Amino acid sequence: MSEQTAPIIDTSDISLLYPDADSLRRHAAGEDIARMSQVTAEQLELYYLMDLKSCDFGSFYTADPEVILYRQSTFADMLDNPELTQVLLKMIPFLNDITELRRMGSDSAASTEAYLYSITEVELYTSLLDLLKTKLLPMAPRFKSTAFRRFAERINILTASEYYKDLNQRLTELTSRVREIKSITIGVNLDSQLRADKAGVLSMNNEYFKSGELLDKMLRLDFKSDEMTCIAPLIPFKKGQSDNQQMALANAFNTAIGDVFRSSIKAWKKVIQMYVLENTDFLIRLMPEIEFVTKATELLQRLKAKGCHLCSPVIAPMTEKKFTAKALCNPIVASKLDGPVIPNDFTFDADGMFYVLTGPNRGGKSVITCAVGIAFVMAQLGLPVCADECVISPCDEIYTHFPTGSEDTIDKGRLGEECSRLGTIFETVTEDSLILLDESFSSTGSYEGAYIAAEVLQGFSMVGCRGIFSTHLHDLAASVDEINAACLPKGGVKIDNLVAAIQEGSRSFKILRAKPDGKSYARDIAEKYGLSLDHILEKVQKH
């Protein structure tokens, strides 16, 4: 390289998801108190929303309000500038190729292959920066987020530097030099028995050798009129050779070329180590973030196309345990349905920090239970949520206890397996957690199920966490006052009832804050299927 000085660029704080170097370090060290298990992601069907390859939902789940607000601004820029997604997606093949070249180059030490790999890496790097210079920087004046403004600023510094221009010029010279090589001329000294004694490279040529005929050359006594025409036909390099022979000859050629390029390799490697490695490392580090923000943005665009209202939630302190959502929708249901989704208002407050949700089958109980969980996930990933308005205090972890197809029923039985899973939750749950239970203890009789569920509810009340227990156990809903009477004097949080409403015998998918009336559900269902006593007698009298 010339005497130009490489620009010193601090990239430690470059992130699309973390506002500063310290929060990025805490994330990398696993110091964030928020966690999300793979089981929770699967039971909430999050992978239906986004198919992530290089990361998972737990990778970026956070309870840090500063991080969440930083991301909200990032996604606002992504939605306001749709072409930004395409620019980020175009970065991925470059970064994948650079990563693979580094892997291959590390296996080649100081060989000719390593030299060629390093040249290719710089080509990829400069092509990537050219992409960002021509496609990203023109958008920069429209950016409002710290993430993209900071990113664009660093790219502008890199591409505007004299060092970068010098690098491009040097790259052009070197690639021309390498790619003009079409053949090499090797001189071989022979001993008295015509065995190879010593060999060396005579020249590196910018054209290929051509086959010739020995007899024709001898008849014309013209061996030197065309230095690139052989006096005998060219023989395929690998013809009739074993693998070991091919490797030996290839190594000999590479060694010869390497001798010629040795000084160039040494100088070029220094360029790679001092400049390109440093300035590509932060871009490679961004790859999981790029995948996440682009796929999340595509999800938000799909939801908007479905008519879903999206809002950036107001983030309240974790200690306040707030959650209020107006017109909350389940994005998975919205993605699957062609028609509109029934929205619901939902609130955790002092009069109901934990809910028992009852109602008819397929009446919307599971839908709203998952909708609340997904709203927490989307909010704490920094995404807008599917609601008109939302205020949320982040939770440290979401625990789900849904029916599964892999219960360990051989040794424990279905009920034993459910109790075991719930017992595991109590080992780590805190007052800042969110608990989502869907049809737990449905494998046993209503009396046994309601008794165990009441014990579990008292436990969660004493922990002080937020949660929903969606159930068909109407006896459990009827015992809420009794549970509160036992727990509130001891410092537990209040439990309240929710019901999935039925209007005129049909499911409305509206969730109401009211005491359940199990008989009304049964009466409506009986009426719907003609099994009320009046309908039965009417049918009997007809025959």
Write the layout of secondary structure elements.
Elements lengths: L20 H8 L9 H6 L2 H4 L7 H4 L4 H16 L2 H24 L5 H25 L9 H15 L1 H18 L3 E8 L5 E10 L8 H7 L22 H43 L1 H19 L4 E2 L2 E2 L7 E6 L2 H6 L7 E5 L5 E5 L6 H16 L4 E2 L2 E4 L5 E4 L11 H16 L5 E5 L7 H18 L2 E5 L3 H5 L1 H8 L7 E9 L2 E7 L5 H11 L4 H9 L2
Helix pairs in contact: 6-7, 6-12, 7-8, 7-9, 7-11, 16-18
Outline the structure in words.
Helix 6 runs antiparallel to helix 12. Mean pLDDT is about 80; it is low at about 405-410. The protein folds into 2 domains: about 20-180 and about 270-295, no CATH class; about 310-540, Rossmann fold (3-Layer(aba) Sandwich). The strands form 4 sheets. A 6-stranded mixed sheet has the order 10-11-12-7-13-14, with helices on both faces. Strands 4-9-5-6 form a 4-stranded mixed sheet, covered by helices on one side. A two-stranded antiparallel sheet has the order 1-2. The chain is elongated. It is built from 20 helices and 14 strands. The chain is an alpha/beta fold and about 550 residues long.
Query: Can you tell me the CATH class of the largest domain?
Result: Alpha Beta
Residue runs with pLDDT of under 50 for 5 or more positions: 406-412
Quote the CATH topology of the largest domain: Rossmann fold
Derived from helix and strand composition plus strand pairing, the structural class reads: alpha/beta
Widest β-sheet, arrangement of strands:
10-11-12-7-13-14
Radius of gyration: 35 Å
Can you tell me the overall shape?
elongated
Q: Biggest β-sheet: count, sense, barrel?
A: 6 strands, mixed
Helical amount: 40-55%
Total domain count? 2
Number of helices: 20
Number of strands: 14
Please identify, by name, the CATH architecture of the largest domain: 3-Layer(aba) Sandwich
Report, as a whole number of angstroms, the end-to-end distance. 102 Å
Under CATH, the homologous superfamily of the largest domain reads P-loop containing nucleotide triphosphate hydrolases
Portion of residues in beta strands equals 5-15%
Nearest-integer average pLDDT:
81
